Amino acid sequence: MSQTKLKDDLARERLIDLAAEFYDQFEGGEVPEMTLPTRTKSNIEYDEESKVWKYGDRTSSRSANSVRGARKLLKAAYTIEFLARQLDEGRSSTLRELYYLSESWDSEEAHFSDQDESNQLVEDLEIVSHVTREDFHMRPEESGATLMGPLKLREQTRRGEREIHCQEDVGEGGYQIPNNPDTIEFLEHDIDFVLCVETGGMRDRLVENGFDDAYNVLVVHLKGQPARATRRITKRLHDELDVPVVVFTDGDPWSYRIFGSVAYGSIKSAHLSEYLATPEAEFIGIQPQDIVDYDLPTDPLSDSDINALQSELDDPRFMTDYWEEQIELQLDIGKKAEQQALASRGLDFVTDTYLPERLDAMGVI
Known about the structure:
EC number: 5.6.2.2
Structural class: alpha/beta
Cofactor: Mg(2+)
Function: Relaxes both positive and negative superturns and exhibits a strong decatenase activity.
Number of domains: 2
CATH class of the largest domain: Alpha Beta
Largest sheet: 6 strands, mixed
GO molecular function, one term: DNA topoisomerase type II (double strand cut, ATP-hydrolyzing) activity
CATH topology of the largest domain: Dna Topoisomerase Vi A Subunit, Chain: A, domain 2
Strand order of the largest sheet: 10-7-13-12-14-15
Order of helices and strands: HEEEEHEHHEEEEEEEHHEHEHHEHEHHEH
Family: Belongs to the TOP6A family.
Number of helices: 13
CATH architecture of the largest domain: 3-Layer(aba) Sandwich
């Protein structure tokens, strides 16, 4: 039996076990309920040992002892039935389709009121079953994130396996990361490090300038706030190929949080932090010090930027001498800059000077 079939069977078994728990509770004269970690900011803890966000000890229940709770369990039961059937049939669907599919369910009480409700229920099922939504064959809408660099991989597709080299067998757009990167097998590589890039414009500049060839780097396009699949494949690349990961973003508080989600995980996906986060990742984005040293073109910090920076000073992920110094400097100068601002020194400056100097100082090259 293939690994994919084994994973599908395990996911289906755990879903059925959840439904069986509801049945057993009914049969035993108990009010059915489902217990989950309380999914609030106050119940998120930064684990110093693993360097990722995790849920704390507080829990809450979805119980049928109220009309609202009973509706939630009814929707969970319908969703479990749908997902189990989907796994049986070897099919998949998107989170958006699940929301619309509920309109066809025979009980109006099981219909979702909006997509946020259906998304949250899928996350609930992930938490209680210890199975990811990718293994339920649930897909987000396309993220479009890509890889470009000296990596050969084997991908499982509906038409069977195929081997792809992420430079030789792809166009300028690169290899598109699939929804479930665990279906990928890394075959061989010449990667010296992984460079995660926030913007498409900078990703294209690096590829056009041949940076991936010159430095044996695998360029991962994050496409803004990275999708789960992007964070998962980044973690796998680091852990399985034993290569450094660096994150290249704009110089603003929201981009620092993009780095934080790659390195330490996010509050929204705290139940999957050890599956998605790469705590060893390092920041190589535009620093406030770069704005000063290179006299980069800038925009003024907005009030929301200032509030976000002040919030990051109290964020455990950024409580280091480096980050405190850079954030204080940014608040002092009142400016932010994009990656593309490096082009003010020439189109080749980022690949010929800026990145090589930063990477050398960090000991990556």
